[in-house]
Design a protein that fits this description.
This protein has one helix spanning 2-23. The protein is mainly alpha-helical.
């Protein structure tokens, strides 16, 4: 469960960063 949470966290962080950087010119 901990490992799954860590992976989910990393994925979520990557997605958020992609969205933020993608939105900013």
């Amino acid at each position: 469960r901990v490992r799954e949470a860590c992976v989910s966290d990393a994925e979520a962080a990557t997605i958020v960063a992609e969205v933020l950087w993608g939105t900013c010119p």
